[in-house]
Amino acid sequence: MTKRALITGVTGQDGSYLAEFLLDKGYEVHGIKRRASLFNTGRVDHIYQDPHTDNQRFQLHYGDLTDSSNLTRIISEVQPDEVYNLGAQSHVAVSFEAPEYTADVDAMGTLRLLEAIRFLGLEKKTKFYQASTSELYGLVQETPQTETTPFHPRSPYAVAKMYAYWIAVNYREAYGMFACNGILFNHESPRRGETFVTRKITRGLANIAMGLEDCLFMGNIDSLRDWGHAKDYVRMQWMMLQQDAPEDYVIATGVQYSVREFITWSAAEMGVTLEFTGTGVDEIATVTGVDGDLAPHIAVGDVIMRIDPRYFRPAEVETLLGDPAKAKKNLGWTPEITAQEMCAEMVREDLKSARRHALLKTHGLDLPVSVEG
Ligand code: NDP
Ligand code: GDR
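Structure tokens predicted for GDP-mannose 4,6-dehydratase (373 residues):
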């Protein structure tokens, strides 16, 4: 029988890859999208199916994690075998600006979904995946981080996600629900939101390469992260719900790099070498070499990265490194794409869009480049 999945956050990075993955597996996939004044389905438009055709296997429903009655109605209509709760205000820096909204969506939204499943009497049918996060470790207590490392969240986002983590555990223990937390470390792709650090770098440097921007303004580039590819990580989200019994898993690569290294790789993908000089807010990256023709607007001596303290966070997570041993042992999961391969893919895609943009500009169509991040 065809399995039915409901994905919150289907229009986001992970939601779009997961929807593709589940459709390939033969699932009927339902996604919740928010009402917005502009189209917000760019990441899933390629799998859109005309609602007037028969056997539609991908359907979108208007909804919001802040709206219990709406969530209950959608779950009642869909009767999902699996719910993937990927929807969230997912930007850590933004959560300091909008802490209450972040708690409402990320913490209470999770509770609303679990309650809807229970209220509808689906707690024995519907399996639940919660998008938990390495941000729970925050001020890290041990390295590498595992499923048993104590949490110390460092942002309103992380605190909200900590509630979501424990409420999923609680519904598992209290009501016997099949609820799992995937404690996912940072994962990226060409579909990553433009204001997360990796995409900000690949897109920013591609724009500089094509003469659309002059300089990349960054926050804490000493920060260390364990970066994987979103495609590898959504596969694991599905695997977690196919276990015999619900358990929580750390999903990571087990390798850590700095933001500065990610900038160096991204530039190198365009044939550009950099030298970092100065310290703290005075650190800059100067071009020391340009090889090939991928970056026609970058020259030796250009300063293409500066620090802007506005991107520092009130409380920072300096270092994260995950140990995915349990996922490997129990589920046979290992990441297939390295951080460097992922960076190369992101640079290639961002160079393509920067070239298109630059071409339009030469024909007088000068679209604004949004650089806020
Ligand atoms: P994105 O920010 O790309 O996507 C978030 C999704 O949530 C979007 O579809 C967004 O809709 C939707 N959303 C936001 N607010 C609401 C709301 N009020 N009601 C319903 N939907 C809403 O995140 P990712 O795909 O990167 O991450 C997926 C999940 O995994 C998130 O929960 C994130 O916190 C978590 N996570 C992500 C990691 C990562 O490195 N990517 C690591 C660990 C956890 P819209 O498109 O309209 O904005
Ligand atoms: P993070 O991701 O906060 O780890 O949360 P992000 O890419 O935003 O930051 C990673 C690190 O880079 C530093 N940094 C900057 N970050 C941004 N966004 N912009 C900058 O200019 C900049 N300069 C330096 C940050 O300070 C940070 O240390 C992501 C999100 O996807 C969460 O939803 C998810 O839970 C975690 O990853 C795991």
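The pocket of guanosine-5'-diphosphate-rhamnose (ligand 2) is lined by residues 90, 92-93, 133-135, 185-186, 195-197, 200, 218-221, 223, 225, 259, 311, 313, 316-317, 373 (CB under 6 Å).
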